[in-house]
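Rotation project, supervised by the postdoc (A.L.). Task for the rotation student: set up a whole-complex structure prediction and record inputs and outputs verbatim in this book. Inputs entered:
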Amino acid sequence: MANLSSVDLLDADIAGVGARTLEPSVGDYIALLKPRVMSLVVFTGFVGLYLAPGHLHPFLAAVAVLCIAVGAGAAGAINMWYDRDIDAVMKRTRERPLPSGRMAPGDALGFGCVLAAASVVVMGLAVNWIAAALLAGTIAFYILVYTMWLKRRTPQNIVIGGAAGAFPPMVGWAAVTGDVGAASLILFALIFFWTPPHFWALSLYRTGDYARAGVPMMPVVAGARETKKQMLLYTVVLWPIALAPAFLGLTGLVYGVVALALSALFTLTAIRVCYDDGDASAKRMFAFSILYLFLLYAVMVVDRAPGLAGGVGTLLGSAG
Amino acid sequence: MDMVSATDDRARRVRAKNRALLAVLVALVALFYAITIVRMGH
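Outputs recorded:
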């Protein structure tokens, strides 16, 4: 648990920790699943499933996506159980079901564990056990490696921990193929290298919150200037990774052009953050980062839709 | 009055939670049934 001062804990008490636990509503259980995070996870998982070579019965594909969603939600619930002390001192999270006292911690932990086990077992029985093992690994990584080990210990927490959010497209891919293909590693890398600039943009304008909670996010430990420099660097590293699906023939020319434009815009937003001492540009970059990843993955799907198929590699090959 | 409304609110939440749980259990049964049918047809 974080090293919280007595003032922080007093604040937490005022926020509701230690208050009478009410009967949680269905909405509180849904909030435990972090629906907004879940939506991006589900979408990237679906894209992995869609791009993978091979065939999976549409119903089983839907079950696979459902399992990814439930698994992600379960990890979110267990994360909220473990982080309830720091959630209580952060403005952004103090109204969550646990710090606000609307739910008992044990209920959240039990809910998360049951969902985690159910998602893995159903994935194994309905789809295949490789995808189930990957899903189990993703949940375990998010809880054990990111939440319990790295988050409160190192400013690199989100860099390494970001892998948890990058696994879903690989799970989707494995659901179809039964293995982890090299192409699915690109889908993984795209989210892995996108996570630090995305999350640091948020933490730039929430530095006070993280400092109060004792979470060593990059802006808290290294300062805003160093964080902005690293964010810019990550957006540059993302260029070849974002373009790789087109050059490897996983997608087509349309995707390649869109990826190039979006990567340029992402780097541009990072440059603007570097020259802005206020929060406005960081907020814009955070919002754009979500759009960036969503659009990249959406265009991958559109590009593979019937009538638009054929990667840049194929195109170059036929031209030669 | 306040205590009565608090008890009512609690009862309402418990009822909603029980109904949600029932819906989840029914959905699980239907899901396993459908998975079995689809996999047997493969």
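Student's summary: Chain B is about 95% helix and 0% strand.
Supervisor addendum: The two ends of chain B are 61 Å apart (CA to CA).
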